[in-house]
Amino acid sequence: xxxxxxxxPGDRQCQVDPNVLAVLPDVAExxxxxxxxxxxxxxxxxxxxxxxxxxxxxxxxxxxSTSAIYSIAPDFxxxxxxxxxxxxxxxxxxxxCKFHEFTKGVPEPISFCEKLARLHSSHTSxxxxxxxxxxxxxxxxxxxxxxxxxxxxxFDNGLRHVLKVREERAGPDPEFDALLPPLFExxxxxxxxxxxxxxxxxxxxxxxxxxxxxxxxxTNGSTGEGIVYDPSSFWAHNExxxxxxxxxxxxxxxxxxxxxxxxxxxSEPKDDYDDRNALYALRFNLxxxxxxxxxxxxxxxxxxEIRRLTGRYPEGYTGEVN
Length: 322
Known about the structure:
By secondary structure, the chain is α+β, with helices and mostly antiparallel strands. 38% of the residues lie in helices and 14% in strands. It is built from nine helices and eleven strands. 38% of the residues are buried.
């Protein structure tokens, strides 16, 4: 086939690197090298490129995440092709997948939520654990995907890691830091432990991990059907995915929740559902506070939510919750 591929860092037109050509399927001729834009941490192109050791691990994580999603729901993400390092520039790395032209907007909810529920319903995590077999990146934020038997333990560990990276980038914040002990000692056990108590068990679901409107695109303008991309996956409680839908800025309105839960009911105890969703949304706001350390807005949102939740659950977990 003929191929159109992307430029790598720099504004000049360039020859396609031999290692990219080696993994392109059935290329007879390269017709054009074209840039399709960029993000703050990687060029958003048909061949995605990042630099440095973090760039290498981020693209590996994206390939492994997309491959995992594709193995379960091949109609819900681009087909992953390969990832690797440029032969002519060992500090530059690439990730390649099938290219899709997108129509502006958020995918229509009926087919989108059915595909997402299908992804979440495949409980095939290795040994039934929570985590992932490699580091995955939310933007330029590496996630700690260490395997855990318990969802509460995995969530606690992952959130502590996010907070550690945030402090490394933004510096300490004594007022905010004072709020963290009751969050970890009271709120997280109170909201997550009941999911795994009283005979209840969380089945690990593969999540996209960063499912906001900027990582979903419409591939069919007539029907509104779409796919997801740029994942930072791990095996999680399926409702974790919906934490990123809570902020209005992410454009997944209430009816997306409703249609999703027509396929997968809310976990018990259902009375905790909204605050669980708020706790999961808190982590996504802390992701944003870490990605944009010079902005106080996301940290302020997180601060207000922690105060609300700690005020609501001052006693923490005191036993089984019906």
